[in-house]
């Protein structure tokens, strides 16, 4: 059993690039896929994976341009690219049916994957990942598509020409991470930082992610596509939000397309609720995964 509690690292060859995957649990157990968000990495899920590894084969991909996965030379970091990557990873690993959990950008990806390939997803958990900020911005201040495309191209060029930020030592990187995430405990900050940096000889430490991933692709701004996605999802859906997060709750009318969903709001939590209120989140997730057929849907509950 001990071997199932330790992470195993593997790479999936997607042709010109590779995707790094962390695997936990027994190879013959039911599959659970965990997808991290932007500027994060697969080892961010270690606590969740370790908690569930006794009962699941857990697959945790590093997104393209993140963690130990290859970067996109073209700066291709659209939702389409991410969803197709997940599909290709699932195909390569022969994952015919699995539970899917995604945080933030990983939630946006997971939603679209579940709507596109509904036959493969047993259940879907989305942590703060329904409405993209770019969609809200477009609705408030519409920008013609050519202007959006030009702006994106300019930003991509600028980021390629800009040198990444380097840190002299791991302590400086940890301090930066702690400054950015004051609600996350010190041990978690240390873990996230150590797995999130890479050494470049003669320069120091830098974050592993590609800075080009920061800028959402212009085609990601089509909010109307999300309604089609939600209509196509067939699995039970758990939506998890923190009541102190900067991410707004999805409007009730947005969720009408989900035939079976449950909205859980975690008290005292912000965007990183799976770190900030970990025990509460693990309890809710564990109950959802084992009782997807019996829990009531279309309701809101404060944890």
Index terms:
single chain; 303 residues; alpha/beta; Rossmann fold; nine-stranded mixed beta sheet; two-stranded antiparallel sheet; 19% strand
What would you note in describing this structure?
The chain has about 300 residues and is an alpha/beta fold. It has one domain: 3-Layer(aba) Sandwich (Rossmann fold). Helix content is about 35%, strand content about 20%. The strands form 2 sheets. The chain has a 9-stranded mixed beta sheet, sandwiched between helices. Helix 3 crosses helix 8. The longest helix is centred in the middle third of the chain and has 17 residues.
Number of helices: 10
Distance between the termini: 32 Å
Profile the largest sheet.
9 strands, mixed
CATH topology: Rossmann fold
CATH superfamily: Alpha/Beta hydrolase fold, catalytic domain
Q: What strand order characterises the main sheet?
A: 1-2-4-3-5-6-9-10-11
Count of domains: 1
The CATH class assignment is: Alpha Beta
Work out the helicity level. Answer: 25-40%
Content-based structural category: alpha/beta
Tell me the series of helices and strands, N- to C-terminal: EEEHEHEHEHHHHEEHEEHHE
Uncertain spans: none
Q: How many strand elements?
A: 11
Proportion of β residues?
Answer: 15-25%
């Amino acid at each position: 059993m001990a071997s199932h509690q330790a992470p195993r690292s593997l790479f999936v060859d997607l042709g010109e690039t590779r995707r790094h995957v962390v695997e936990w649990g027994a190879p013959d157990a039911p599959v659970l896929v965990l997808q991290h968000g932007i500027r994060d990495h697969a080892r961010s899920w270690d606590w969740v994976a370790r908690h569930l590894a006794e009962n699941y084969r857990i697959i945790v991909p590093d997104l393209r341009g993140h963690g130990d996965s290859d970067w996109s030379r073209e700066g291709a970091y659209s939702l389409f690219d991410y969803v197709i990557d997940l599909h290709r990873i699932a195909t390569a690993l022969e994952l015919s049916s699995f539970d899917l959990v995604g945080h933030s950008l990983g939630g946006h990806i997971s939603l679209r994957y579940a709507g596109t390939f509904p036959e493969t997803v047993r259940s879907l958990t989305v942590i703060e990942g329904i409405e993209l900020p770019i969609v809200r911005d477009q609705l408030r201040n519409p920008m013609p598509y050519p202007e959006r495309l030009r702006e994106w191209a300019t930003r991509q060029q600028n980021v390629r020409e800009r040198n990444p930020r380097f840190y002299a030592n791991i302590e400086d990187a940890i301090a930066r991470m702690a400054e950015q995430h004051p609600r996350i405990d010190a041990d978690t900050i240390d873990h996230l930082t150590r797995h999130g940096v890479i050494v470049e000889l003669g320069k120091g430490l830098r974050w592993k992610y590609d800075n080009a991933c920061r800028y959402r692709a212009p085609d990601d701004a089509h909010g109307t596509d999300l309604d089609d996605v939600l209509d196509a999802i067939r699995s039970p859906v758990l939506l998890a939000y923190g009541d102190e997060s900067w991410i707004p709750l999805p409007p009730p009318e947005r969720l009408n397309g989900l035939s079976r969903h449950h909205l859980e709001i975690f008290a005292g939590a912000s965007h990183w609720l799976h770190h900030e209120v970990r025990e509460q989140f693990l309890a809710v997730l564990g109950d959802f995964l084992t009782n997807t057929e019996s829990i009531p849907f279309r309701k809101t509950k404060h944890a």
